[in-house]
Amino acid sequence: xxxxxxxxxxxxxxxxxxxxxxxxxxxxxxxxxxxxxxxxxxxxxxxxxxxxxxxxxxxxxxxxxxxxxxxxxxxxxxxxxxxxxxxxxxxxxxxxxxxxxxxxxxxxxxxxxxxxxxxxxxxxxxxxxxxxxxxxxxxxxxxxxxxxxxxxxxxxxxxxxxxxxxxxxxxxxxxxxxxxxxxxxxxxxxxxxxxxxxxxxxxxxxxxxxxxxxxxxxxxxxxxxxxxxxxxxxxxxxxxxxxxxxxxxxxxxxxxxxxxxxxxxxxxxxxxxxxxxxxxxxxxxxxxxxxxxxx
Length: 295
What we know:
A hairpin with a 7-residue loop joins strand 1 and strand 2.
């Protein structure tokens, strides 16, 4: 692992395109690792990696490797598992809310210390809000004994920095009167350089944003408290329309379908306005109280 880590660090920091990593197993030898010609363009295909001749498995696939060779096959086909959705728009909202809250309930149902991370965005805010709503009606239970259980909330703040998103998370926390059960981590920027080698080791490839440094610091802190299970808003990546273009697309789609937006237009455009004015240089503003209240 140490050799691998140092080799990756050498590639990223010096723009070296190929390194030879000694193998620790008996007999010696080495494995060559080479960067692609343009490793920053790996997302042209979702299955590329920054390394030559190394690809990720396609979604819904797995690979069996044996002495006789390897076999790739698809085990999950989305087209075979499509479901019928309600015909009316309002019914779809209700149906989605029921599915979402039930998904959160099931993932909180365990017998270990559990947490929820809250960034201030719509995804993590929705997960957090659903979790607190479920707890309010005594629906957050342990798996084995079916006893009522609690969970902790974790967030990150960089006080005084223009990119600090905690004020938006704080709106959610105050709404649920949750200050006593929330732990806010305030990382010292000077600690980030020390994390770079560890980040390279865990990620095994260049990452899209320096925010990964914050994630690792937050996750280490949560784990140090004994919390190994937590819910968060990553993965879905703005599932609830958090990006500005998605808000505009939603409005245009509703208008094209002739859906009456009179009762929601004010909230939608208040949300869109805040997205454009809260943090114009960063590209991702946060919703206003009115928009958050629409959930």
